[in-house]
Amino acid sequence: MTSPRVCLGENLTSTLDGKLQLQPWSVPRCPVDVIQGSSGDGKIDNIAALPGKLLVEKKASWVNDAPINQQMMIRVIRPSRKWLTSNPNAIQFRDRWTHAINEEPALPIVTSIYNSQMGSAADVGTNSVAEPNPGRQWVWWGANTVDEWIEELEPGAELKLWYRCYVWTPPPWSNNANKNSPQHYAYAVGVRLQIWAYPTQGKLVTG
What we know:
This protein is mainly beta and about 210 residues long. It contains one helix and 16 strands. A hairpin with a 5-residue loop joins β2 (about 10-15) and β3. The two termini are about 20 Å apart.
């Protein structure tokens, strides 16, 4: 008597004693989870030209180890950020990430294209001789997460990710801010990057 032969999809396998099992790639996976801190947090001065001062930069990549395509998702987790600006100046963060398959991603510059921006300006006016009135603004921005679904990744193909975050001070810049007692600080803290791989329906079967 011979054992029956059963066809299995690529998301399934079986043990030597005939028990059916799922393949590792048949469920959502997070094969890449990296954290990068900011290298330039703290006191800042006039940064009037874009892209600004680079605070955070991180690259990550993953090769599809499954025999079938994987639906890919990029997750960007920003920690809480804070800044202090003095009347009448402004502070703004901008970030951007790019990706490519089997080649280097485009340089993520934030001059005209970016994924997010956050910032503020203090404006409490001037006195009778056009000097900025004393004023400072403290801002705390909570942590947040952004997911970007991208194309499927073929077996053996490599997904590459490149992230950058900048800070700048949109003009005009007042050298006598806060009535000649300027205080300007920016803290991006860092970023957490994840690459997620989701299962797809196989097109072949094995006997």
